[in-house]
């Protein structure tokens, strides 16, 4: 495949809260795996990607900026192979993700989607939602973009802060009690990794003492995998990760689903599978040209 050149686009640091080094590590490890398989991988910063002409036929990226996503979609529409798809990345913004997962019947918390200048206390009271999670409607850039609210007044204060910061839309999720689990996967491969983040000291944006400690509730791993397969198909992403809550009764609810996360505890294990998935996609792509 030496005739195929790949544009590898790294994620801008503003979209890697707490994980700049981890995001770079999985990206570089994947690029190296692709080079071992004979590809030429030209690496671009996200800022450089936005300002230059891309001549490579394949774009492997960790982009999150709206301008970058728009350019990825244009390149995809022009006939280039884009992984993850710009449309898939856009689907993983929180408002779109919530609508897609709820509309697809994939277990996701009861949610309300609001403008940040709205008064929501009465709405939360009607739904019986007291303690909850307030999340910016797009991709996160700051730790405050995922905030736990202990009551309706705090939820309103978070929304007001978002409004002052220029964030126009937000998703409010009902808080769920249970074990918090983080997972990573690569569509079309056997790779799947999950763990309890607070047992390993993994940094979780917005999460603290309000999360129920691990109780060792039995996880149906195959059921979680099936939900993830459905979610990555519905959202149109290949390299993915996310978080779920396992209730005391064993019910699994996905609370977040991300396009190409950090793979922090398993980057060396994941990189070969990401490269294999890219190789399979490139072969299919080239066969249709």
Record keyword descriptors for this entry:
alpha/beta; Rossmann fold; Dna Ligase, domain 1; four-stranded parallel sheet
Outline of the structure:
The protein is an alpha/beta fold and 289 residues long. 38% of the residues lie in helices and 22% in strands.
Characterise the protein shown here.
This protein has helices at 20-36, 46-51, 66-77, 86-91, 94-104, 121-126, 152-164, 197-200, 221-235, 267-287; strands at residues 5-9, 40-44, 58-61, 81-83, 111-115, 132-136, 146-149, 169-174, 179-186, 192-195, 239-246, 252-259. The protein has 289 residues and is of the alpha/beta class. The protein has 3 domains: 5-86 and 266-287, Rossmann fold (3-Layer(aba) Sandwich); 110-174, Dna Ligase, domain 1 (2-Layer Sandwich), CATH 3.30.1490; 179-259, no CATH class. The protein has a 4-stranded parallel sheet with strand order 2-1-3-4, with helices on both faces. Strands 5-8-6-7 form a 4-stranded antiparallel sheet, with helices on both faces. A 4-stranded antiparallel sheet has the order 10-9-11-12. Helix 1 crosses helix 10. The protein is globular, with a radius of gyration of 19 Å.
